[in-house]
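pinging the channel bc i need a second pair of eyes. not urgent but kinda urgent?? the chain im working w is below, pasted from the shared doc
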Amino acid sequence: MEFPSLLLVNAVTIAGCMLALWLLSLWLKDASIVDIFWGLGFVVVAWVSTLCAASPGTLAWLTTILVTIWGCRLAGYLAWRNLGHGEDKRYTEMRNKPGRNFALFSLVVVFGLQGTIMWIVSLPLQILPTLSGSFSAISAIGIACWAIGLTFEAVGDYQLARFKANASQQGEVLDQGLWRYTRHPNYFGDFLIWWGYYLLAISADSGAWWTAVGPALMSFCLLYFSGVAHLEQHIQTRRPAYADYIRRTSPFFPWPPSPQQTSSIESSSGSAHPQEPRPS
């Protein structure tokens, strides 16, 4: 199957998955199940692309395995964190807005939009099985980016979950481990992972350069749309002292904390203020 056909097949596959998930969300009265499917959706796209391609090479199979590891880990973590706790407050706020037909709104804005973003972001995954290139130095760099990204994402999630599980640390900020060097190690990890997939794609064929639109869109979402900017706007309105953590800690790319800023809470008790849980 050629690349244009794969694009169509994946568009239909994603649309079908999102429609089924939307119907399930209506029955459960919980739109936040879309977050759990986010990682799994890319796993589906990767496998559909590889299995439908005429003759996928080693790089395509390797990338599909990497996507499967990443997507299943993310879905498992979000399921463990979210299931049994009711609908995420972001979706509840949308649901409770007066005069809104939430069923239709969620179909278009929640499930439809995420499905569209998924299709665009996954362009490197969709084109790779149609390329004939072999393993190269760029491939190795792509795998290294993926490995470092997965480490940041998984370790960041683990450190945050362990921190929040300690009742004595409620109302404090996680500013140790990876969180000492970046306020969003999990988002930075996602950033590296998607640019790693892109490097794998162009290592197979430099003509795939234009699929950079996929990781570029993901980077934009992480930094300005549903990631850093959105999360920190809400944190600061609820927790004014979080501003101190912002002043001394890099927002995204890991960097040593600023020596000019010292938390007033750290000075008195050795800790800082609360870090919000990771949204999807």
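so DSSP finds twelve helices and no strands in the chain. and The two ends are 33 Å apart (CA to CA). — does that match what u expected or am i reading it wrong
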